[in-house]
Structure formats: structure tokens, C-alpha cells
Amino acid sequence: MTEDQRWLGAMREALALAASPDAPHGENPRVGCVVVDEGGSAVGRGFHRGAGTPHAEVVALHDAGDRARGATAVVTLEPCRHVGRTGPCTSALIEAGVARVVIAQPDPTEIAGGGAEVLRSAGIDVVMGVLSDEAAELNDDWTFAVTHGRPLVTWKAAVSIDGRVAGPDRGPTAITRQPARDEVMHLRSRVGAIIVGTGTVLADDPALTVRAPAQVVGLAPLRVVVGSRSLPPNSRVLDDSAPTLLTGERDPSVLLARLFERGVRHVLMEGGPTLARAFLEAEMVDRVVWYVAPVILGDGPVALPPLRRGPVGVDVTGIRTVGEDVCIQGEIRYEER
Question: So which residues are the catalytic ones?
């Protein structure tokens, strides 16, 4: 057994803690930590519960108490070295007297990264890269956002077999069945904002909230409505069930930069054809989640008008059935011109 393999079990437990339903998606990454004593027993466990709360390492060290001295802290993300709303985790680990820190994913941020070197300088053994792929997948949206300076954008659409998003009357059209709608609720529960255009609000009057059966964790996603047209005062997006941002900003890059400043790390774009084209033309769509329903509408608006920029590539990452509907997921690539 290699040195790294010794810590696989503890790291898997730390990843499970980080993925806990009580660990919200949001501005901060999801992090779990397990403290293992010299005999190999887990003596402390913790995970981060959201911005402003103690970090996973601090929670696990508190759980371990005096048993942390000489122990190994197994953590899914490189411990931070900066002072924010809480103190640096590197200082907590050093003061607790741990002998070793095992890390899955390095912290890509300039302000918090570099914690491993701080620990090494204090004489603590550091093992980096244990189950790094699993840790990166857990925080893929956060990692993308802090690396690119804007939220990850997922475009969700529901279309008929002939590619239409509504019927001939262009009004609200129930295209997919309940299992697919339930999946969308789960997807909404994992993002920081949902973006639509005023056209979608005027045509469908969507609530854009997270409803059962998805498990709601933390704050409801911010509802973002893009456009200059006035909305009826009784529009459901204007109620008090979730926060709403009305904006006339039509430049996707500017809008996403503002949302990033507000702490949004993952955006779900559910708008209609006009909004989808604007984001694709600006190369600001990163993923697609496309539900295709077994129905032919024959007339009505299509999911996307012609693109001036030409074809956009999609690397398909999954195709599966959801009840009677088909879900196609993929990563966008823009090199095709």
C-alpha cells in the first residue's frame, strides 16, 4: 500500500461530508475534513456549512479536541491561509499540533491558495492529490467561477422532437413530463441564480423557485430577469418567495461579472431563444442540459434562432431517459467557426 492509499478511506468520508445536504452551494466551496489519530481511527469530523460559518478543518479539530495533536487531518480542499470572515485554517491546524495534512484539491484562488506551503514551513507533512478528481468534481462550478472570474453558465432547455419550446399560440406549453420537471427542481437547488428574459416572464409567468421534491438548502436562487419591457405587478417573479434582480443589462459578460461580485458561482439560464442566442454569441454558455420530449408540435417558436457566429460544438457527456423524455448533457466548445 502506497502512502496515498492509506488515506483513501478517510478522504472518501471527507468527500461525503462535503457533499452533505446541509452543505449549501454558494459563494464558498463545499469542504469536508476528517481527523485521523496515529492508530488510524477517525476522531474528528466536520464540513463547511456556508459563508461566515467555521471552516471544515476548524469544525473537525474542535470535534477531535486534544486527540488532534500528532494526528492527520484529511481535507478535500487545500486549507486557506487568509483571514476572511473566519481565521486561516492553516493557523488552526498548526496550533492544534497535527503531524500531517492530506489534501485532495489545491485551492486555485490567489487569496487563499498556498496553504500547503505554509503548513510545510511549520514542519507539518503535507500529502497532496488524494482523490483530486473526485474533489474537483464536487466543486466544479466553484472552481470554474474563481478561475474565470464569472459564474459557470448552464443552459437548460425543454424542447419537442421538432425543436420547439412552445406551441403555435406561443403561450405556456407543458413539454416535458413530471420526472424531468423534478430534475429541473434539483438543478435549480444547486445554482446561485436563474436567468430569463422579460419575454419568458410575459409569456409563461414562471415562479423560478425551487419546489418539491428537490431538497432546498440555504438561500433560494436569485431570479434574474433581463430586458427593458415592463412586467405586470402580479408577476410571480416579483413575489417574496425568492430575491429578484430586474436588469436592462444586455451584455452577458457584464451581467455575469456583476453576479460574480454578488457571490453567484453557478447560473442556470432558462430564458427563451433571444437570451440563449445572446449568451451563445458572447461565448458565455458553458454547459447544456437539454430535455427532448416525445411530441411534435408542428408550429411555434424554436429553441434557438440562427446564430451569426456559426456552429457551436457540444461535447456530449451523457444521454439518458428521464421517464418518457430524453436528457442530453454536454460541455460547450467554441473553437468551431
Answer: 57
